[in-house]
Every structure is written in structure tokens, then in C-alpha cells.
Design goal:
Blueprint lengths: L1 E2 L2 E2 L7 H8 L15 H9 L6 E7 L3 H4 L4 H10 L3 E5 L8 H6 L3 E3 L6 H16 L3 H8 L19 E5 L3 H11 L4 E5 L6 H6 L4 E2 L2 H7 L2 E4 L13 H6 L4 E5 L8 H9 L3 E6 L10 H4 L4 E3 L8 H21 L16
Parallel strand pairs: 3-4, 4-5, 6-7, 6-9, 7-8, 9-10, 10-11, 11-12
Antiparallel strand pairs: 1-2
Length: 341
């Protein structure tokens, strides 16, 4: 956390970003929470340990220490003087933004720093699921070559339609890369993009939600998690997809109803899927873990030195801006019109 003279950090930062972090020392001292679990963290906040705090640097992993930034935690942070929370990541569903707004706490994220790495991960999962690579990978490591019997033949990406739900920074990056493989790109956003933006995104074609599900050979989920997108894809939506469609999720696990996904895989409505995120991380539904048709990664979308460093530098820049000028460089869109008292 950053106080008027202090900062607390949930986890360490990279050596590359350390110099930028150290450069904040003329502006703030470092205050690190002593707590190791949410209940203790709330009491630590209430104890006055962070009084005078102005800004907070937080990571996705720090939720194990703080719990979600909501309710009484937000109230306690505001009472300590916190006015800024700089989140080190693009997705910020761990933060209750409306409650932060009510308590005059500004929130930032790193919206485009993750785009390339997450799109690369989605493409890896897309190809693995489309080609049925997971089963032979498992067989090979069990010294069984392609397995007996071998996995069913996969499919080429060329000529297939990739439907992207959420054509933002990650979705656009994925669209360009998938287009290079000869895929046709369709997308659904609540608001259609300009023709120029569609052209830049591999000639992406806007479709209504239902049409996107019905026409896509592969559906990639790239939407933020919120009340409107929780279980956006469930039994009904899987039933609207092509028989044998592939689903890729690098957004947030709870965008998909995992129970419904397992059933759709078991009955063949969905032929395969590639997942980097799960509803109850780090727990994964056993129907996914035990299914050889499923490509799984343990939330590795931004797990590269370059991307982690860029995210950290971006978050540090938000903290510096907050301390020096009282403004975040990349405040979350829900707070675009936020006005302090």
C-alpha cells in the first residue's frame, strides 16, 4: 500500500521493474501488510496500521491476503485515507468498483499491457483444441505414442469461423493472429466497432449474440467478468452453438457455467475446449481435468517476463501519477465520470 509516505505490495515485483518502484521513494515509503488472510487483513485495516495511506498497489494474487476489495474492506481502506487503488492486471473483478466509487476511491488497471500475451495463449489453446492435441500429448508422455486408439482427427483452422465475444484489446490481437491462419473473424460487442477498427481486426464482421453462437466453429470468450457476464455461456448457449464447436476461455472462469460445459463436452455438443481460467480457481471441475479432449492451462495468460514487467511498470506509473497529480493514468471505464466531493 502507498500511504502519504507509504506503499504496501501483495507480492514482489520483477527485477526489471524494481528500479521504477524504488524511484517512488521520494514520494512514498513502503508499508507492507503483515496479514496473511482476509479476516486478519480487515482487522489490520481497522487497527489504524494504514492510516495516512493514499494509494494502493495490488496484484491478482494478493486476493489470498486481502480477500475481494469490497464491502467492509473498502470502507476500512477509505477510512485510512486511501483514494487510489492501482491494480496490476487488465481484469479487475476482484474489486467492487461501485463501492469504491461510493467511498471516493479511484481504481485503475492495465488494459492493453496483457493483450498480446493473452491472445497468444488463446491461440495456443484454440489450435490445441481444434487439432485434438491434448490426448496424444498425454499418450506420448505415457510412452504410448499416439494412444490406442489414436485421438480422432482434428481440424484445420483455415476457412473456419472464429467468433470472438468481446473484441477489445485482447480480442483484436487474437483476431489479427487468427486471420493469419486463414480463419474468418466474427465478433459480438454490445456496440459495433467502426469500419476502420473492424478492418484493423482482420476484417472482423459484427454479428448479434445468437448469430455469433450459431455461425462460429470456435467461440473465444474475451469479456470482463461482471454481474451481466457471469455464466454468460451456459446450457442454453451451448445448445445454440454448432454441433462439435470448440470453446476457448482466457477471460474469467465464471463467464462459463462449468457444469454446463462438462455436460456439453460429454454429450458431444462441444467437441473440445481450451481453458486458462476456471470458476473456482485453483480448483478445477473434475469433469474437465479428467477429459482428455480438454486443453488446460493454470491461468498462464500473462505469464511472460515481458508482459509481467510491462504490467508492473504500468501500475507503478499509475501510482506515481496518483501521488504527484492526484489522477490515475488509466482509470477504469466505470469511473469515467466520477467526481470527488
Amino acid at each position: 500500500m502507498f500511504a502519504s509516505r507509504g506503499v504496501g505490495v501483495g507480492v514482489g515485483i520483477s527485477a526489471t521493474a524494481q528500479s521504477a518502484f524504488d524511484a517512488l521513494s521520494p514520494l512514498a515509503d513502503i508499508v507492507t501488510p503483515k496479514s496473511s488472510e482476509p479476516a486478519d487483513f480487515l482487522e489490520e485495516c481497522r487497527s489504524g496500521a494504514f492510516n495516512g495511506t493514499k494509494a494502493v498497489f495490488r496484484t491478482f494474487e494478493s486476493v489470498s491476503i486481502t480477500g475481494r476489495i469490497e464491502g467492509e474492506v473498502v470502507k476500512a481502506l477509505a477510512g485510512a485515507g486511501v483514494r487510489f487503488i492501482a491494480h496490476n492486471g487488465a481484469g479487475y473483478d476482484q474489486i467492487d468498483v461501485p463501492t469504491c466509487t461510493t467511498h471516493h476511491i479511484h481504481v485503475s488497471n492495465t488494459p492493453t499491457a496483457v493483450s498480446a500475451a493473452t491472445a497468444d495463449t488463446a491461440l495456443f489453446l484454440l489450435l490445441g483444441a481444434l487439432r485434438n492435441f491434448n490426448a496424444p500429448l498425454l499418450a506420448l508422455r505415457s510412452h504410448a505414442w499416439r494412444g490406442t486408439p489414436p485421438a480422432p482427427l482434428g481440424h484445420d483452422p483455415e476457412g473456419k469461423t472464429l467468433g470472438i465475444l468481446g473484441l477489445g484489446g485482447i480480442g483484436k490481437n487474437l483476431a489479427i493472429k487468427a486471420r493469419a491462419l486463414g480463419m474468418n473473424i466474427a465478433y459480438h460487442n454490445r456496440k459495433r466497432l467502426s469500419e476502420e477498427e473492424e478492418k484493423q481486426a482482420g476484417g472482423a464482421r459484427w454479428l448479434g449474440f445468437e448469430a455469433l453462437l450459431a455461425e462460429s466453429d470456435v467461440v473465444s470468450l474475451n469479456v470482463p467478468l461482471n454481474d451481466k457476464t457471469r455464466h454468460l455461456i451456459g446450457e442454453r448457449e451451448f445448445g445454440r452453438m454448432k454441433k462439435g464447436a470448440v470453446v476457448v476461455n482466457t477471460a474469467r472462469g465464471a463467464v462459463v457455467d462449468e457444469e454446463a460445459l462438462v455436460r456439453a463436452l460429454d454429450n458431444g455438443q462441444i467437441s473440445s475446449c481450451g481453458l486458462d481460467v476456471y470458476e473456482n480457481e485453483p480448483s478445477i471441475h473434475p469433469g474437465l481435468v479428467d477429459n482428455p479432449k480438454v486443453m488446460l492451462l493454470p491461468h498462464m495468460g500473462t505469464w511472460t517476463e515481458e508482459t509481467q514487467t510491462e504490467m508492473e511498470l504500468w501500475t507503478i506509473a499509475n501510482v506515481r501519477s496518483a501521488l504527484e497529480s492526484g489522477v490515475l493514468k488509466s482509470q477504469v471505464p466505470e469511473q469515467r465520470d466520477m467526481v470527488d466531493e
